[in-house]
Amino acid sequence: MVRIGEVGAGSIAEALELRIGTRIVTVNGARVRDSIDFHFLTAENELELEAVDPDGVPAVYEISRDPSERLGIVPARDTIRECANECVFCFIDGNPPDARAPLWLRDDDFRLSFTYGSYVTLTNLGPRGLQRLVDQRISPLYVSVHATSPDVRTRLLKNNRAGLILKQLEGLLDGGLEVHTQVVLCPDWNDGEELDRTIRELYALGKGVLTLSVVPVGLTRYNLDRPVRLLRPAEAATALRQTGAIRGQAMRERGHGWCYAADELFLIAGRDVPAAGYYDDWALLENGVGALRTLLDAFEEGRDRLVPLDGVDRVRIVTGTSMRPWFEELAPRVARRMRCAVEVVAVRNRYFGPSVTIAGLLSGADLLDAVADSGSGDLVLLPGEALNGDGLFIDGLALSDMARRLSPAVVRPGHELVETLTAAHAPTGQ
């Protein structure tokens, strides 16, 4: 069942005096398992809702509505389906012992995959669960494949159901669904010939496999070499050749590159990131494929809008160590346009360890220490990807607290240089 989390103003639900916390048990006689079920079942105009209010009083509501009328029931957040795997490269195993409780949640929930584009393994879905995806047209899904070899995938995920992945994908595709797929590349586990096999077998499944992204494994000081190690530059270069090999065929046969390497793979290999055309329609941007190219192109397009800012004597661009070369290349151009000093502050990650080099996983404490000497003439640009929707860094430090502790320096989140540098720069902490 689902609980009502919100009632829309002026809606049918408000007219029926439905209350927040009311449980919706069935819709037109069908049991409601979660919010996906609810939205699927309430697509009809003639509805019969069996409900139980917060006081435990049952009721049945018969609704006949015009297609333009809003039902107005917003379900409360579903309980997240947790992961049934023990992946040898699981980043959660790399959390510091004192990490905040939300960071320990091992989600593997198809609803989050459908709604937010997070990747799932499908190992916690049996035949009925997979058929539900087809019946309710839950597509596209984002699936962590990692390897199509049953033995290799079972070893990686430590789950006996992991070897069913090709059969599962075939069933979803035969049912008309589409999937984005992913490989987290672990050296000596699923690279080399295994990566070639995975690329070949996923491509052979047909156009329903929309994309394949290849992402290098990320490890912290808490799970490094236990048992997976980091990718070496030569291995990253080999993986780039492997992903590139299928792209020509895909362009000829499907009109797009199909297989994409994540930004980190190019950084590890010491290669320049590709031009924008490599990323086609940017379908995987939220999953780290093309973010660096987007940033660089945005700077080029908007650099003429960079102007001097009153009271700013120095701009401090704060980032992770892997991004230092890119920002150091941009810094002199920013300085000329803004007529002030520009400094790149590459922060070593102490929270997770130096093997984690991306800006998005920098803690508030590490960032604060790196710019603690900022003064009244400084504009401090923090990596916006290191903040969650509540304005918190991964260690729980709030951006507003950081801004207050750095006062009188001006603090702003985000590496969108053009927008940030041309904005009004009052220290709002937002």
Q: Could you please describe the fold and organization of this structure?
A:
With 430 residues, the protein is an alpha/beta fold. It is 31% helix and 17% strand. Strands 1, 2, 3, 4, 5 and 6 form a six-stranded antiparallel beta sheet that branches. Strands 7-8-9-10 form a four-stranded parallel beta sheet. Helix 13 links the parallel strand 13 and strand 14. Helix 8 crosses helix 9. It is globular, with a radius of gyration of 25 Å. The two termini are 38 Å apart.
Distance between the termini: 38 Å
- Number of distinct helices: 14
What oligomeric arrangement do these chains adopt?
single chain
Q: What does the largest sheet look like?
A: 6 strands, antiparallel
Based on CA inertia axes, which overall geometry fits?
Answer: globular
**How much strand content do the residues show?**
15-25%
Give the radius of gyration. 25 Å
Mean pLDDT score, rounded? 92
Low-confidence stretches: 418-430
Order of helices and strands: EHEEHEEEHHEHHEHEHEHHEHEHEHEH
**Structural class determined from secondary elements:** alpha/beta
Overall helicity: 25-40%
